[in-house]
């Protein structure tokens, strides 16, 4: 007798195993969707260090991460989740006090 479900069951087990293997990585890093916007970083001369007393944590465009020291996002760098709170770019605008 021919068993047509065997390949799909095997594929399901393989995919399921890969998914389970990824869970600890996500749990450990907490940054499963880390991404950068290279073209905007280049255009705005982004750097991972402050410029004098100007840094992303003090910029009104910054979208903070979970903790103050975590990397976050930026309103002018769509899709970028790796903006350092200690970073800087030429679009810096002081956060209102
Ligand atoms: S605009 Fe520039 S300085 Fe401001 S949060 Fe975004 S990357 Fe940082």
Give a short overview.
This protein is mainly alpha-helical and about 100 residues long. About 30% of the residues lie in helices and about 5% in strands. It folds into two domains: about 1-30; about 35-95, High-Potential Iron-Sulfur Protein, Chain A (Irregular).
Key features?
two-stranded antiparallel ribbon, mainly alpha, High-Potential Iron-Sulfur Protein, Chain A, binds iron/sulfur cluster, 2 helices, 2 domains, 4% strand, 97 residues
What report would you give on this structure?
By secondary structure, the protein is mainly α. The chain contains two helices and two strands; from the N terminus they run ααββ. The chain has helices at about 5-30, 40-45, and strands spanning about 60-65, 75. It has two domains: about 1-30; about 35-95, High potential iron-sulphur protein (High-Potential Iron-Sulfur Protein, Chain A, Irregular). The chain starts with a helix and ends in a 23-residue tail after the last strand. The structure holds iron/sulfur cluster. The site of iron/sulfur cluster has 15 residues, from loops.
Q: Which structural class fits the helix and strand makeup?
A: mainly alpha
Count helical runs.
2
Superfamily at the CATH H level of the largest domain?
High potential iron-sulphur protein
CATH architecture classification name of the largest domain: Irregular
User: What is the percent of helical residues?
Assistant: 25-40%
Would you list the SSEs in sequence order as H and E?
Answer: HHEE
Q: How would you characterize the largest beta sheet?
A: 2 strands, antiparallel
Overall structural domain count: 2
User: Using only CA atoms, what is the Rg?
Assistant: 20 Å
The CATH first-level class of the largest domain comes to Few Secondary Structures
